[in-house]
Amino acid sequence: MEKLLQIEGLKVEFKVYEGLLKVLNGVELALEEGERVGLVGEAGCGKTTTMKCVLRILPSPPGRITAGRILFRGQDLLRLPLQRMQRVRGRGIAMIFQDPTAALNPVFTIGDQLMAVIRHGSRDAMNKKEIRRRAIAVLREVQLPDPERILANYPIQLSGGMRQRVCIAMALSTEPELLIADEPTTSLDVTIQDQILRLLNALVERRGTSVIFITHSLGVVREMADRVYVMYAGSIVESAPKGELFSRPLHPYTQGLMRAVPKLTGGGIAEGIPGRIPDYLNPPPGCRFQPRCPHAWERCSQAPPPLKEVEDGRQVACFLYEEGA
Amino acid sequence: MKVLKFVAKRLLMSIFVLFGLSILIFLVSRVLPGDPVRMALGPRAPEWAVQNMREQMHLDKPLYVQYYYWLSGALHGDLGQSLFTRRPVMDDIKEFLPATMELALFAGLIMAIFGILLGAVAGRYSNTWVDNTVRIFSYVGVVTPSFVFAILFLLLFGYLLRWFPTAGRLSAGIPRPPAITGMVTLDALITGNWAALGDALWHMVLPAVSLALGGMAQEARITRSTISDNLRKDYIGAARGFGVPERLVMLKYLLKPSLIPTASILGLDFASLLANAFLVELIFNWPGFSRYGINAMLRKDLNAVSAVVMVLGIVFVIVNILVDLVVAGLDPRIRLGAERGK
């Protein structure tokens, strides 16, 4: 089966005053048509950066893609002329950002921004009236009351939850084949996080949209994804179908993540993983998790372990699972 | 309607500001050392003449009485006599103010248009050679007083290359268009006198550009930094990511939010144009209001000083209201905040 999206060996560097931050260190990720994939990892591990590369909206400078391919339906987006890339954006791939307040332009009305997205991002050409009708329809779909009025509102006139609904409406208004949802509930109040998740789930289910769902919460992944990628410090360390990942995590980092989740039955405070994400200026040699890893031995600091298929449908980047280890 | 209400409110508040300003300048001009009447009449004038004039100007009365006389006159449009031009100060204002306003308006236009243009290009292509060139220009522009530019331009383009005239508002052979506004370019435009219009603009280039460069550098710096900051904002990434064409993203979704800080400081920079105009007017022999004002202060020409300060105060108030309107027009957050009451 042809992959819808395939990221191969993606490397990104950020140029800052102190030097080069080697943020993405060969990301490998693939997604099949109709699949819903979760991408999990701590804050700052490069999830958002990876997705911005897919849409080619990584601010540059300071960011720069130094290696890798991003294949969408077989064509490499990184080498596509801008004009053809424009035809992928919106109708092909659309993204919901983490912070809806930052993702909406503060000085234009919702209507102006939403209708610009529909006009330029949709497959079919529409006249003004049809665009407006579509805008009202998607606002209604995300269950915003009084869509006519919301079109005339500025972002500051809406609550955080309403803003994120608008962003979801924008992302779905172009009927994308692939939806990237970048922690769409992180910046919202706990009370509405659930509503938004359920709404998003229902909308993509109805359309059969393929989804990459980025989150740092394993609980959210359990609800939203079929398969999970675990990312640590700029590369994928493990990927597995959801059920298998939760019942038997392989990579020491994934195991740590699982233990970090407070259990309903266990009581007490969750364990967490000691240490922090490494300094991207001088990342540790070899495996980037090795300084925090309870199983590390000398081989781990010599070369990075490659991401290898260890079982059917399961990949892990760890020397513990090498043949004969 | 909302706009009218806003303007009316601001004008009403300005009255208090101007009232305070009038008291302040009245006091300050009178506390300064030196006898204005003696300075006006000269050291050899007999004492009785000086005394006479002092009484005539009420300078022998207590300060609050003097202020009362001045205020009641001012409210009737009588700002008193100038000690030096020996004419009503009002006539002096009518003669000199339009020349300076014309100069400042042109300088302001140059400052705003080119400052924003340079800043936007530098911000869009930040850390390239274009950006570095603009930044060097900005530093030079900010630290160099406008009279230095004026002298340099006068020598280079006026005397050496002879591209532009070196003094005055019109060439000798060109009759002045009838004074409707007092601004030669505007009068020429109204009367359709194209020859005079071209000539007046030609005379305007050097003084207006040398006056504008400092502010232009300031606007360019501000615009550059907002543009390059906003380029990294998620809403720009989002607009691009949804397939909105790059040109539209740049000229609409990036430019409008980025102009807000620039617009806010334009008012201040316009005020400094009027202050800097003094030496530029002197260098280009421009018969302007700033020159008149400084001369009045140096000679302790009391009525003229008060009048000049009040007129500049009024100009400043109007410019600030205009700037606030522009900023509110650009930024709905301010507009809506004001509506919600305050």
Mind explaining what this structure looks like?
The complex is a heterodimer of chains A (325) and B (342). With 325 residues, chain A is α/β, with parallel strands linked by helices. Chain A has a domain of 179 residues: 3-Layer(aba) Sandwich (Rossmann fold), CATH 3.40.50. In chain A, 32% of the residues lie in helices and 25% in strands. Chain A has 11 helices and 12 strands. In chain A, strands 6-7-8-3-9-10-12-11 form an 8-stranded mixed sheet, with helices on both faces. The two termini of chain A are 32 Å apart. The relative contact order of chain A is 0.14. The model of chain A has no long low-confidence stretch (mean pLDDT 89). Chain B is 77% helix and 0% strand. In chain B, helix 1 packs antiparallel against helix 13. The radius of gyration of chain B is 24 Å and the shape is globular. The relative contact order of chain B is 0.14. The chains are: A alpha/beta (325), B mainly alpha (342). Chains A and B meet through helix 4 and helix 7 of A and helix 10, helix 11 and helix 14 of B.
